[in-house]
Amino acid sequence: MSAGGQGVFIPSRYKLYVAKVTQATTAAPAIGTEVVNELGAALVPARTSIGLYTFTLTGAFTNNKTLAKINGGTGAAMRVFNIEHTSADVLTVNVFDLGATPALADSGNFDLEIKVYY
Questions:
Q1: What own/partner pairs with CB < 8 Å and gap ≥ 24 does 97-103 have?
Q2: For the chain, N or C: smaller number of CB within 10 Å?
């Protein structure tokens, strides 16, 4: 809002990262489009095993100040996502396929959103 014709700037209290992630078979996940990256550097995605992926950025994920979530998701009809704050450097994403084909956890897309408060 403005007061007397002057705008008021209220800075955010977190750094935001939003990206579209794609995953196919046994390859590492790929960052398709970075919508917002206020973390200052690119995340490094890796695949550990079926449905288990890590996103690494040295020192970026402060303990008790990092919030991560997954929006949407395409692929298998019965996929469940879990995100774990593994360390100050790593977020781990688990994708579970609740159907009869666990390998389907390695196929699909999702939006990754990370907020690091300061």
A1: 97/51, 101/76, 102/50, 102/51, 103/50
A2: N
